[in-house]
Amino acid sequence: MACFLASYMSQAQVYTNTNLETGAEAFIAQQVELDPSIKTRIKSLPLDARLSERFCQTPLNYTTNASPPFNRQVTVQVKCEDLSGWTQYVHVRIEELYPVIVTTQTINKGELITAEAITVEYKAKHFVRASNLHTEQFLIGSRAKRIVREGSAITLNHICMVCKGDNITIYAKTRTLTIKTTGVALQDGNVGEQIRVKNQKSGKTISARVKDVESVEVNI
Known about the structure:
Layout: H1 2-11, E1 13-15, H2 17-29, E2 39-44, E3 54-56, E4 61-63, E5 73-80, E6 86-103, E7 118-124, E8 143-144, E9 159-160, E10 167-173, E11 178-185, E12 194-199, E13 205-212, E14 215-219
Parallel strand pairs: 10-14
Antiparallel strand pairs: 1-3, 2-6, 4-5, 5-6, 6-7, 8-9, 10-11, 11-12, 12-13, 13-14
């Protein structure tokens, strides 16, 4: 009997808790449809450290009763189907992380926001607000409307891409051409918002849509 056991163990694959956890993660990862705009973190909950190594002469079989798209946690059954026959359950957590722009330093009221003052961090969905910004290109060159502490997530409420009193570029668009002129912003605004501006050439006050940092557009 002892001789048989020694022969069995020499031929069988050894599985540690880490092996089983990694295998369960890979099994779930193969079935998750990844979104390139976010990061998906797949991580097993640690198995009981008191569990000893296990042996199996055949490849392990991974299954789950759940179907994609998965909830935040999935239970994976890991089964050895050789003569020894054992089963282990591994709980796998799936977390979607969304890009959020945060400050790398304190930004004072009225201060210009530069590339060096911000960075992108990925946060779990339940920590992300609809007002959080995630695209740096629209943010750089805007100004802070209030103090933004280091490490804070920046929202539209913190900034103005066109600020009251700014000298701005006005793009007046027709069906066939675009006329460029200058003006002064009479209100704060961010991309897509309608604000009042004064055309410096004509002296007229018009309503225009914020196009970008220090620029607006109006259809004529």
